[in-house]
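Protein 1 of 2
SEQ + STRUCT:
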Amino acid sequence: MISKRVMGQLAGAAGALVLAGCAGWPGGPSSDTTRPRSDIPGGAAVRISQGTLVDARGMTLYTFDRDVRGSGKSACNGQCAANWPPLPAAAGIPPGDFSIVSRDDRSLQLAYKGKPLYRWAKDSRPGERSGDGVNGAWRVARP
């Protein structure tokens, strides 16, 4: 029979292993510069990394100057949306300054402070920001 003391030690070790295993998961402990924020919950579709908004995979998010803040609509459709894929609102709205806008194709897109959020097709790795300033109309999304 296993003593209560040994069972307690085993339970503590198992908990430490679970936390260590979650280190690479969105919302889990991390050694990168991602920092939690009260209006962006861990594991949400959006988080903050190195001062910018990123998606769950760590890809940089952007805003489009031609989108009218608070209009509830995206101005980037067709070929524009092929180059700048919209961030889908599939998981719902995180608390805080997030909202959902409608698109011409009737899909729903996540917005931050009234501006729709996009990815840049030419960013290939998490943390890349090569879309910032493209055509003088695209900006890295910042909290």
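Protein 2 of 2
SEQ + STRUCT:
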Amino acid sequence: MKLWILVVVVLTGAGVYVLMTSRSADYLELTAPEAQRLVAAGDVTLIDIRTPEEWRQTGVPRNAKLVNMVHPGGVDGFVSEILDQVDGDADAPIALICRTGNRTTQVQRLLVARGFGQVYNISEGMVGSSAGPGWLKRGLPIEPYPNQ
């Protein structure tokens, strides 16, 4: 497995961001702060794939779309709902977040296999992992789960 660093320069109305993204095979990663900046600038759709119970426990990242990975429509229903969140554009940039990055790793592979072109994994997740301290410990903006 080859590991290399991809440097991406993103030009937005809010400024220029340089992202240091670790890439293995075709799988892209973002840190939580990188994802938050891109979401705030409107350059990526953030999708939280955790369960409603997890959303209630911690709140959700500001501006995240909520798509429960345990979908009543199974895998096809889940993929269809993700596609709906990006207005049917499978090439739109998507950043996935879960608790610790394990589930998003699997979902990222699924979405790439299903033809999605720009799927980023926030591998530190909400609560942290070996990839980083996580969205919550970094103090990034969260909102309460709307169905509390």
